[in-house]
Design goal:
- The chain is of the alpha+beta class and about 120 residues long.
- It has one helix spanning about 1-25, and strands at about 35-40, 50-55, 55-65, 65-75, 80-85, 95-100, 105-110, 115-120.
- The protein contains 1 helix and 8 strands.
- Strands 1-2-3-4-5-6-7-8 form an 8-stranded antiparallel β-barrel.
- The protein is elongated, with a radius of gyration of 19 Å.
Length: about 120
């Protein structure tokens, strides 16, 4: 009985430790209430996630908790243009890229490596 109790509590302790470390290393996105559009693409070595916020900023990364870059955006007609923050890049050494917006996808105009993202959330006005 003692061994079973010890095993149970140590398992619970390890699970809680993993959750705490995960939340510490990759905190929950604080800007999620400002989100107006989210798009995602799966890839063999990690997906690409893009978020646009109502304050004209964007974030890109592997998920909403693993942000790799950010900057400002503007939308003109059906074209979305991303500009990276000063000193940062979107992917590799690219600091600016544009997408054509359709009802379900963002299609990159020039190939920076993102190519296309499926829109998974779009705030309705």
């Amino acid at each position: 009985m003692k061994i079973a109790a010890w095993t149970f509590f140590s398992t619970i302790g390890v699970i809680l430790l993993i959750i705490i470390v995960d939340l510490f290393l990759f905190p929950i996105n604080q800007k999620s209430d400002q989100l107006i559009l989210s798009a995602y693409r799966e890839a063999p070595l990690g997906g690409i996630w893009l978020a646009l916020y109502d304050d004209q900023t964007w974030e890109i990364g592997y998920s909403s908790r693993e942000i790799t870059s950010s900057g400002n955006y503007f939308i003109r007609h059906d074209t979305l243009t991303l500009n990276a923050q000063s000193g940062k890049t979107i992917l590799q050494d690219i600091s600016k890229t544009s997408f054509i917006i359709d009802s379900k996808n963002l299609r990159e105009i020039e190939n920076s490596g993102i190519r296309a993202l499926e829109i998974v959330f779009k705030k309705s006005d």
